[in-house]
Amino acid sequence: MLPISFLVLLLSSILSPSSAADFCVADLSRPANPAGFSCKKASTVTVTDFSFSGLGATGNTGNIMKSAVTPAFCQQFPGLNGLGLSAARLDLGLNGVVPLHTHPAASEVLLVSEGKILAGFISSSNTVYYKTLIKGDLMVFPQGLLHFQVQSGSSPAVAFATFNSPDPGFQITSLSLFGSSLPSPLVEKVTFLDDEQVRKLKRVFGGTGQVLKYRSRLLL
To answer: Where along this sequence does the record place binding of Mn(2+) (predicted)?
Structure first.
């Protein structure tokens, strides 16, 4: 027979309410840390922390990429903090594209709801997997791998993505290279592009760093 003391402890653990918090709504007034945001005081939490209406509106595709990504990450949807999931809406106009990008902290599942999207990713062994998706199709993009979406067909496309992190991160490779202040000589060095190509792409994406060209070359 089990000792009486053990039975008492077992019953108390079953019958007592859990000491774990039900949720940890993000306190966006405080900085995030690797584990996420700090929790808001329970007395300040409202139902609006657990709902988000931003994915119902069409994103503005009037840009060079002819696409828009509307995130419902922890920063926009505080109730997601600590729950391990988030979402986003993707709008692709005609000839729209979301260039090669990564989500460092999450895998992604994409669901096409309108139009056609050519989507794919590149594995760490440089194998490419891509397919044209139609309404109702799903595709998964493993965490951290480069992937892309391109509008295909005769009409704009819409898709919804879910992620297994409240803050998956979002880094577009071309923006990081050509929309930043990384000096042109360094960009040329790491991409094998010539100076004219780098300067052109920096103008397109709004990057800086050309003025450091000659001085930086002395350091390479």
So the answer is: 101, 103, 108, 147
